[in-house]
Amino acid sequence: MRYGTGMLMVLAAGVLWSFQALIIRQIEVAGPWAILAWRSAAMVPVLLACLAWAQKGSPLPALRNVGLAGVLGGVALVVAMGGTILAFQTTTIANAAFLLAAAPFLAAVLGRLILGESVAPRTWGAIALALVGIFLMVREGLAAGALIGNLAALIAALGFAAFSVSLRWRRVGSSLPTTILGAGFAVIAGVLGTLQLGQPLIIPATEVMWCVLMGVVTMSGGMVLYTMGSRVVPSAELTLLSNTEIILAPVWVWLILGETASANTLTGGAVVLAAILFNACAGARRMQPA
Q1: pLDDT per residue as tens digits for the range 3-13
Q2: Cβ proximity of 277 and 46 under 8 Å
Q3: N vs C: which end of the chain shows fewer Cβ within 10 Å?
Q4: By three-state DSSP, how is residue 54 classified?
C-alpha cells in the first residue's frame, strides 16, 4: 500500500467517527457501559466478516496469532471507546474534542519509546498547529465541562494513542484482529460495568438501533479504514490525520441539533484542517519515488 492511500483511509476513518457525538446525543436512557456493550456487540460480526474476506477463509488463525501486542491493543481500544462515550455524555463536545486531541502527542511519545519511531519535524509542527486550532475552537466552553468527563476524554486519548502504537508494534499481516479483540473485550467490560453499577443493560429498542448503527457503520467502517492505513502511516501521523473527527463533530451537531458553532469554532477548525493538509501533503511528497 502506498503512503497516500493509507493517508486517505485514515482521513476517511475520522469522517465516519465524527458522527459518534451526534448519535450518542440521541441516547437518553442507556449509560456509557450499556452503550459500549451494545455498540461493540454490533461491531464484532462485521469485523469478523471483513477479516474472513481479507484472509480468504476462517478468521480464527489470524486471531490466534495476534500475540501480546494485539491483546494490549485490544485493551487500549476498550479504554479509548469507553472513555470517549463517557466524555460525550458528561462534558461538552468542545471539551471532549480538545482533550481527545492530546492523542497525537501521546502517540508520538509512545511510538518513540516503544517502537523507536522518529517523529518528523513537520509532524511536530502540524501537531502544534492543530492544538492551536482546537484551542481556538473550544476556549469559550472549556471551563463549562464536568471534571469526570474531562478526565474520561484524557484517558480515552491515552488509550487511542496506545492502540495506534500497538498496530505498528510486532504487527502481523492484518491489524483487524486487534480491533476484533478490542470489540470483544469491550462487550465484556460493558456488561460487567453495567451490572456493577446497577444500570439497565436492556434499553429501549430505539437506543439499541442507535448503538447498532454506530457499531456497524461508523465504528466498524472507521476501524477497518484506520487499521488498514496504519500499515504505512506512522503512529503520530495516524492520530493527527484522524483529527478530521474533531473538525466535523461540532459541525454535525450544529447542523442537526442546532448547537451554535461560534466564529472561534469555525476559525479553529480551519486551522486544524490546514495542519492536517500540510502534514498529509508533505508526507505524500516525501514518499514519492524519485
Answers
A1: 888 888 988 99
A2: no
A3: C
A4: helix
